[in-house]
Write the structure tokens for this entry.
Amino acid sequence: MRLLGILKTAASALRRNIMRTLLTTLGIVIGVAAVITMMEIGNGATLAIQRTLTSIGANSLVVMSGAQNVGGINYGIGSITTLSPNDADSIAKECSACANVAPVVRARTQIVYGNRNWVPTYIYGSTPSFLQIRDWTDMDAGEAFTEHDVLNVSKVCIVGRTIVRELFAGQSPIGKEIRVRNVAFKVVGVLSPKGANMMGQDQDDTLLAPWTTIKYRVVATSLSSGNQSTTDTSNTTEVNSLSETYPNITTSLYPVQSSNELADVPQPIRFANVDQILTNARSAEEIPSAIRQITDVLRENHHLRPAAPNDFAVRDMTEITQAMSSTTELITKLLLYVAMISLVVGGVGIMNIMLVSVTERTREIGLRMAVGAEPNDILSQFLAEAIVLCLLGGIMGILVGRGASILVSKVLNWPTAPSVGAIVAAVVVSASVGVIFGFYPAWKGSRLDPIDALRYE
Amino acid sequence: MNDLINLKNIHKTYHLGEVDLPVLKGVSLKVARGELVALMGVSGSGKSTLMNILGCLDHPTSGEYWLDGLEISRFGAKERARLRNRIIGFVFQSFNLLPRTTALENVLLPLSYTRENLTEHLKRQRAAEMLEKVGLADRVHHQPSQLSGGEQQRVAIARSLINGPQILLADEPTGNLDSRTSEEILDMFEKLNGIDGITIILVTHDPGVAHHAQRTIRIRDGLIEGSGGPL
């Protein structure tokens, strides 16, 4: 018998007992539907987890300037300033795996509003992309500064929750001016709260301003990332009794400019360096290629010879990435086991009904054998019936499962994501369930003796 | 040698655990092409076993079975299935039609196991012709439950004829029918034998049925008791 004939015979045999056919497939329908719904809910959960982990910077990469090695003494990462805003532009332009790029200038200094003062944990000079990379675009109030502000070296800033509490005692800071090392910054936005990072440092204690402003108006000549304000004050407080014991006055070769002079006349610095470049890969999978691309671009920008070591370092968040992939893996495995169990249960149901069917149709088998069916014909007929049953169940299961997952996402508001893989797997698995659990009954039918089968009551 | 069937010293012994149960004890038998033979015997005489062997459903323990010039007593299950499909048509006492399947589909059944490659259209045409031949042209799309006993048996006969068999093996074909319908069915057998030249073996215990045959073979206790003209 040709394949089409076999399928037609199977279909007509199943049609002869439509109620039982439907009830039998129900097991597979429920199994496949459960698998698909679970997979889609699981996919949604995975996406949600990924999104959460991305918001703490799972995909982000930090490019640090390299280590200085003078006469055998290594000063550690960041001791020479090799990164420039140009590097950031090149990365943005040439690295396809990087979504956003932001140059970062850091400062640590006192900020003042009215009669209150505070030293924030983080003072960052960057671009609006910084917020995208940190997934921090939600503003509590006001809005972020723009690229335009970066170009204009505008004196605007956005502040975190902690600064609002410390400087403004919880009142709205929008439109107020705070002084950062005697430079007046207008507050244009308040960052949404983010809490502490994994090291326990308060991320809401952040002041963010255009990097050009921080660079040229605040940090100016000083390249160190130390607390510039304390350096200032220690320079002026001559009456410090401890200064004899712990002298911290640095002899400077040139006359020191006052802070006011610095703020009023930004120093044109020929080599405008940045402390870090912050970027994020388009997805977790693209992190390695992003690192490779960044390394290639920067080596070329810095004119490094092939043998020379990198004068920068690219850091990724290995810990977070690992947490992400292991979570995803766990969910996928869990769902796989659920899938297996429900499909095995469905398969046993199919086997049960096929055994009943073979017994019930013993006379039919006898007749088919009498008119010339070989054992293989009987085997393939019953096997085909089981497979058709399972595929039928699989298709209905896909529809029911898709419907259920849409319902879940609409009614319960759970995130779901359609999974083509789950649908393909469901079809393949339900067909294999048909083969595996249909084989024994079919084999049993094919082994019948036609004489006994014809006489069977 | 014009014998279609030639049995030589057929033995059939069933093994029931430790006990050997001989059912056929050396049956020798010839049936010529185009004969209409009745095979008679009481139950337990070995009549059914002999019919199973004649119908290639079973193979003898020993002896030779020549069918259409071939010695088939040692054929395997597969070859016997092909022989049944090509050469032998079966008619059963209980009709054995597939329930909830139209007469036409029932008649088509043997064709699905035929090696011949016929188009679907040709198959259906042939099945319809067979139904017409047994006088059921207007019952083509009826299911067995919508047909009378006689009509069901005629569908079964059409089914047995679809592959153009040389032998028709009818096992108590009128056992479930009233006397009037029985006569009709037996007339049909006679016609098939007379006009189409099909060799027919009627297995029965009813002398009235055997009366329609040209020759009656009697079997008792696993041996041919006698073979003579019509009763």
User: Anything to note?
Assistant: Chain A has two domains: 3-53+324-455, 59-316. Residues 59-316 of chain A form one domain. The longest strand of chain A covers residues 98-107.
